[in-house]
Amino acid sequence: MIAIVDYGVGNLRSVAKALERVGAEVRVTSDADEISSADGVVLPGVGAFGKCMDNLRAAGLEDCVRSVAGSDTPFFGICVGMQILFDESEEFGPVKGLGILPGKVKRFARRTPDMKIPHMGWNQLQISERGRAPQLRGIPDGAFVYFVHSYYVDADASDLAASTTNYGRSFISSVWSDNIFATQFHPEKSQKLGLKLLANFAVMAGEPVP
């Protein structure tokens, strides 16, 4: 079973439906015991970094998420669910994150008059040369995925990057560290390639995906 962490933020049903579509057994839950015993865990997130952290604490799930991310359980963060894995964000801040991965979250600087913030819509992945994350198996270099964000991760350790994307500058669009994989983009909104990525994650969690 894959647990989707319900802490009052994020497009939980969209993520759940996408995972169900690839054949995974899914449970949207705020129960720490269910999350801790799941075969895979997804941490979604939409909105402000600080609000997500406040909700996680209010739900009593901060230590649970930190513990699962530090285990060998396959863990998937999405959008702000990726950002809060890092040390802090400058969004209405600085605001402290979970500190599981080293780095800070910064706002895009407008580089040209026509550069719109938030970065919204389809953009391409440049797969990291350090080694392809297993979650990206079957995802071609240059694949288009869907983004909606005004902030990006500026990681202290560049070898965390599983992929980068260009928007006024090169930024980290996905990270990979041991059992943790996380994306700034939304796989649940990225059509066929997004479903492929979620299917890869489900297989890693032991789900009998066709």
Keywords:
210 residues, alpha/beta, Rossmann fold, 8-stranded mixed β-sheet, 4-stranded mixed β-sheet, 6 helices, 14 strands, 25% helix
Describe the structure.
The protein is of the alpha/beta class. The protein has one domain (2-204): Rossmann fold. Helix content is 25%, strand content 30%. The strands form 3 sheets. Strands 2-1-3-4-14-13-12-9 form an 8-stranded mixed β-sheet, sandwiched between helices. The chain starts with a strand and ends in a 6-residue tail after the last helix. The relative contact order is 0.19. The model has no long low-confidence stretch (mean pLDDT 93).
Write a brief structural summary.
The protein is an alpha/beta fold.
How many beta-strand runs? 14
Mean pLDDT: 93
- Which architecture would the CATH scheme give at its second level? 3-Layer(aba) Sandwich
* CATH uppermost class: Alpha Beta
